[in-house]
Every structure is written in structure tokens, then in C-alpha cells.
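[job 0412] stage=complex_fold ligand=adenosine-5'-triphosphate status=START
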Amino acid sequence: MEEDTLNNLLPASDTDLDFSFTSVSTATDRTFACSSARSSLARSSLTLSFNDRLSSTSSSSPSSSSAPSSSSSRPHRGSDPNWSAIKTATALSSDGRLHLRHLKLLRHLGTGNLGRVYLCRLRDCDSASFALKVVDRDHLSAKKLSHVDTEAEILSMLDHPFLPTLYAHFTASHYTCLLIDYCPGGDLHSLLRRQPSNRLPLQAVRFFVAEVLVALEYLHALGIVYRDLKPENILLRENGHVMLSDFDLCFKADVVPTFRTYRGPSDQDRTGNSNRTKTKHAYRRGSCFGAANEQREPSKEVVAEFVAEPTAAYSQCCVGTHEYLAPELVSGAGHGNGVDWWAFGVLIYELLYGTTPFKGGNKEGTLRNIASSEQVRFPAAAEKEEEGMAEARDLIEKLLVKDPRRRLGWAGGATDIKRHLFFEGIKWPLIRSYRPPAEVRGLTRKLMRSKSKGQGHVSHVPGSHRRRRWWWKGLEFFMRAKGSKHSYYYCSRSSASNHSNGNYYRYYVNNNKNGRLLD
Ligand SMILES: Nc1ncnc2c1ncn2[C@@H]1O[C@H](COP(=O)(O)OP(=O)(O)OP(=O)(O)O)[C@@H](O)[C@H]1O
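[job 0412] stage=complex_fold status=DONE, emitting C-alpha cells
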């Protein structure tokens, strides 16, 4: 029905656009506000500065359309059939650029806070599917527009199998359009809700979080702190591998890559389960994190490893999804790269246990639990629990350390986390070749179906309510109760009643003397 309507409304040219999309109704206010990111000092030529890498594909001028982001600047996607299709379409275009008229909208996939997302194809090529995020600039505040630009900037930097590729970014009339990979597998949150007790088997968790870890590693190496990790933002590609989405809450900092050395297993023991005395290491082998083990003596050689972690990243702009907020975000005292590693711990916990670790009776309760000194607790272990659960708990405990500087990942990033025993045996360079877990209910069947239909989409499970990023009045109450010296300003308090889901609040922490809002 909706598909028909959209098809009927398809524009003959870009100028017809006003009639082709329904404007996003007053969207909920974003919790994002631009960060007060404090970059690290540029110590050497190795310092990567985000701004140096901005792609020229980002264009905000009205009525412009852009040439597709060049596949040559994305070496890993050079042979991607989607790129070939885009190149063919632009070669046939009179001005060598991709326009909205080259696309055929097939279906509305969903609506976010900034815009609507459509499944689409190129008019002259039925084999390549894309997701088109359409943002009606006329209906967004200046602040939200800056979020759109942030998302476009970040997307234009990415070249990674577990992150979206931005094929084109164009502005037509008052619409900004971002053309990215289409993920027919839906999101991990919906997949989780299909599982018995909302839990995934441990091997499936290892598969998904290992890929997320690699994606975060890449983002952090670029100095990007993601800040919105949660199952809802982990989409599943046609091949069952993950793709992180939603980059408008990110903030950027400089990162100083370093080489360091470590001595094999002794370091592994440090980051792994320290109570375990192992003389031999069990290596899992076989397809998709299988359980076949092989015993071998630990290697003792000194290994040089690359670490690019934005440890100096700093922002005071508090954003995120409440169950995934790190304690330093809740306290409003400023935060950095550690928030992603905290959220990574929450993610592993939720995938394994079907709930988040600090969830309270209501949102304030959750915040209180996060901010308290109470350590993470686990449900009582089953009598016969899956192999690897002890390692999983140990990893979660090390990630959910309340002090960000003592949290696993803060200093060494994903490099440290990868060495934890939970991930033992994973051959990281081959991670793209691992088979998605066949035992996960709904995963392969849905993906197969979407493949055969060519345009299927794993819908959200009814009742699997997506957790939005919000901030809520309860925080004010909560902080007052704690006698905090910080004061909070709800930037959108007056418009809160207009919000479509009524649960979005953006706030600034004001802890400077002159009372200026930190932005
Ligand atoms: N590349 C994609 N492939 C398939 N579905 C997608 C894709 N990108 C987004 N979607 C779907 O479209 C919907 C809207 O996505 P969008 O990124 O605009 O907002 P969101 O994920 O709801 O988050 P927020 O509103 O917080 O920005 C989501 O439900 C998502 O599942």
C-alpha cells in the first residue's frame, strides 16, 4: 500500500520533489549537541585529524546533487557491485552526477529523528539495492541540520565492511539525501526479540560482538567516538554480517597512533581471567567460531601491535540511550572514548542475558544504578551453562568498570579487548569470512527470503519497542537528589510536548562559572 503510494508519487524530476516525500513530522529533538571535543595535542605527523579527511561529497548547498563518493578512495569497496551500478548510472547521466531521478523508491523502511529511510534501486539496474535516507531540511532546526551534516561527514570517511558506505550524498530542493548500503536483515534488537528469552547463544554473541568490536576499532582509529552503540543500531547485511548505523551522535577528536609491544599470553592473562592459571591455550577452530579445540603451548614472543585509540577525546555534551549510558555520561562530568567500551560491555550483557545490566524500575532507577558504585551483577549461572560464559562475564566485568580510566579498552582500545579470552581463537584478519551463526532463530531464513524476493526486509518484531536516545526530566531530579554541583538545562523543554515519541530531551551540563551553555 505504502509502496504503491510512494511509487505513484515518484518524481519525474528533482523539482517535483516537494510532492514525493511526506515531510517528517516534527521529529523528536535529538539528544545530540555538538561536542566540546578537546583534541589531543598534535604531537607528531602521525596525528590523524578528522577534519583533514572530510570528503568533498558533503554538500549542503541547495538544489545540488553530488557525484558519487569515489570508489577509488575506498579501496575495500572497489569491486563492490553496488559501486559498479552507481558508476554506470552516473556515466549515463548528462552531468556525470547521480540525481534523485536515477532512483526508484521501493519501500519506506523506517523513520528516524532526522528523516525517513527508503529502500531504493537504480532505475536502470535492478540488481543493486540501497537505503536512501531523506532529510527534509525545511523541517529541521539549525541544530538538527548540523547533526545531518555530522552524519554525512562521518559516513563520507568510512571504508569498512561493518560500516555503511556512502554511495552518494546530494541535495535536491530542500531534501538532503544519503545513499548507503541496504541491510535486509533488520537490526539486532529485533533479532534478539525473536529469540527464546531474548537471548542469543554464546557463539552467536561472539560472532556479532567481534564484528562490532572491529567496527569500533576502525571508528576510534579515525578519532570518532560513536556514543550510540545498542542493538537497534546494529543492522544486518544480506550476508548476515553487521553494519553499524546512525552516526549523528558521534564526536570527533584527534588520535595519536602508536606501536607497542607485548609478550603473548602473559598479557592475555592480564586482560583475561586472572583467576585462571593456564599452561595451555585452547584455540577454537573451524567455521564460525566453532567449538573444535586444539591444544598448543602458548607463544612467548614479543609482538608489536598497533594502537590508535582517541584517549584524549573529551566532550561534555551528554547524549545516548539511557540503558547504555556510561557513568561518566550520567554524572555529566565529561567523557571520552571510554563510553563506547562501556556500551560494548552493556551490549554483550544484553545479547547474553536478554536485558541490560543496570536496568531499573524506571529511567531514573536505571540512571541511579549506573551512577552508583554498585558493580555489575549477573543472573545466577545455570547448572550446565554454555562453554565460554565465565569468560564472557569476566570480559563484561572489565568493560563495566565505573572509572573510565580503569576500564578495559580505555588505553589500548580494541587491541586490548581482542586479547581477552572471550575472543580467544578468533582470527581477526579473517573475520569477514566467518559464517553467520546458523542457529540463530530467524537470521538465515529471513536473509534467504529477502534474497530470493530481492527486496524483502526483516521487519521489526511487533512489540519490540526501539529504545530511543532520550534524556528525561528525571535526571534533573536525580542529580539534585545527589547534591550535584552541576546544573542542567533542557534545551528543548518547551517543545517536548511536540515530540512524536515524547521522550527526547537534550540537555547541556553547565558547570562553568559564567553560566554559559556548553555547546
Ligand atoms: N541501511 C539501512 N538498511 C535497512 N534499514 C535501515 C537502514 N538505515 C536505517 N534503516 C531503518 O530505517 C529506520 C530509520 O533509521 P534512521 O537511521 O533514520 O533512524 P533510527 O535508527 O531510528 O535512529 P534515530 O532516530 O535515533 O536517528 C530504522 O528503523 C532502521 O531500521
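The chain has four domains: 2-181, 188-257+308-452, 259-306, 470-519.
[job 0412] exit 0
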